[in-house]
Amino acid sequence: MLDSTTGRPERAAALRCEGITKAFQGVHAVNGASFDVPEGQITALIGPNGAGKTTVVNILSGAMRCDSGRAFIGTTEITNRPSHTIARLGLLRTFQLSRELGGLTVLENMLVAPADQAGESFVNLLLRPGLIERQEREHAERALALLDTYGLYDHRDTRARELSGGQKKLLEIARAVMASPTILLLDEPMAGVNPALIELIGGYIVDLKEHGVTVLMIEHNLNVVEKICDYVIVLAEGRTLATGRLSELRENTDVVKAYLGEVIDAGASH
Amino acid sequence: MVYYIFTLVFFCFDYFILAMGLNIQYGEAGILNFAYIGFVAIGAYFTGVFSLPSSAGTGQHYILGLGLPFPVNLLLGGLAAMFFALIVALITLRRLRTDYLAIVLISLSLVLYDFCNNFVSLFNGADGLYNVPEPFAKAFGLTVNSFIPFFACVTAVISLLMWFVMSRVMRAPVGRTFRAIRDDEVVAAALGKNVFLMRLKAMLIGSFYAGVGGGLLIQFGGSFNPTAWLPGETFVVFAVLIVGGAGNNIGMFVGALLVETLLIHLPAFLPEIPGHPGLIEYFDNAVVGIVLMLMLWFRPQGVVPERLRRAASFGVRSGLGMLPQAPIEPAALDRP
Ligand SMILES: Nc1ncnc2c1ncn2[C@@H]1O[C@H](COP(=O)(O)OP(=O)(O)OP(=O)(O)O)[C@@H](O)[C@H]1O
Ligand SMILES: [Mg+2]
Fold first, then answer.
1. Which end of chain A has fewer CB within 10 Å, C or N?
2. A113 Cβ under 8 Å from any chain B Cβ
3. ipTM at complex level
């Protein structure tokens, strides 16, 4: 998976950042982050609170514009392109604080996700009602199957705002999966969920990888990183501090100082 | 008596149409269109000038004057409002969000109002248009009195047709995407929805409804002038929407019945209070305001709340036990 001498991924990069910077009123949230996300693997993006991880995800997904630097999906440049364009290139993301579509049911949240729905055009509404109905039925079947997988089937008719915090996290991931991503950015998918659910979500993420999805996940729990992530990117003060396998990063004193510290000892001896 | 009742029937169905148009914009797509009455006015004026003969010799000043027959002029009036919405949307909708958009739109409706009021050669200024031909009056030999029940029924039929179309739109994926944008446009965009384009669609179809509702107003009364669309009138349509229940078409009808018919027009037919002529009418707006506050306090979802679209309505055949995919076991985590 990784080239043993350089520690860099030998696969093609599915997603690449080159010197991304972003400042908020003088605060350099991201300050020259550069990294490759290898295709078809699970990559962890770790770093201290305020390191700029969420900001990087916001920039990559088009939710925010960056000040300088470039971003690519494969060879396609996506720097500062609008969210919806980037989503249509197959890059989907979840949010650190779940953002459910509160007034819609859980099933409807799922049904919003597929791109290019015939029923989003008035012309089709007039001329091709049969096509729309067929598509809706297919989407609903797939959505219900996914909801079943993610343990939300019984809540299919519940308004999303009435779900619990953990259920919202699950819905958030399921909804992104419903959009058939090739690259999935997960912002702390396991924050605030119970240990059993952490295991479950970890299982779903591994399953996505097995279906060929490239995953980049922000994660503070190093046990999870160790178990499911193939590759790690460490971000500190808006810069890429190191990349590689977690075992290699443990020997990197910069990384240990900046982030891992005590945690790694505790993690290593669990 | 029959005259009174059918006037009330007309306003009920006309405001049903207006409320459906505002509902797709605000209730569904979340666009706070505080210029709504401006689009109604555009529809009314254009329906008028499409139907009136050339202005020479009428004693009025207006553009066009094409003398087109009834449903054609109404349709074109609706399209005129839609075209106006396109221009407004291209300027405002891309950059502005919610409250800022609302402020810009309310200013816009004030500008439009002053413009129509003072630019006489457009729609006859403060006097407005009058003597607009009554649809089918000659063909069916309708008198002044029989026209009112007749046209109230025409309006009812048109509103039911438009209700049929609107309920199809709201049940379709396009309606769902509108509501997704209303709930969280960042999420909708992250899922690949072109928020601007979808909002534009809601703006256009809603403005068509506004224009047709306005066109029916000028055809019913035969006249239309700036006193009929004071910018504050927008909030009467909002009151219909909020009382009825945003997001639900049936609610729009109930709201039109309660607010427009019972609160605004019925009191005009009540006997005068001796010694205080016109007093009752002065209370109209106060009563609407109070009702609105009470609704928002005690029943913000409206009389008829937005309905949930349940899984069963999608025609999926397989039940839970027959679903193709088994849940993934967390065992995947236990790999070495
Ligand atoms: N919208 C914003 N406006 C102003 N400052 C912001 C904004 N978003 C982030 N920041 C600042 O940018 C820095 C990086 O924030 P970011 O959310 O990217 O950190 P993070 O690495 O995701 O942290 P955490 O692990 O706590 O989620 C922080 O100092 C934060 O205060
Ligand atoms: Mg974060």
1. C
2. yes
3. 0.89
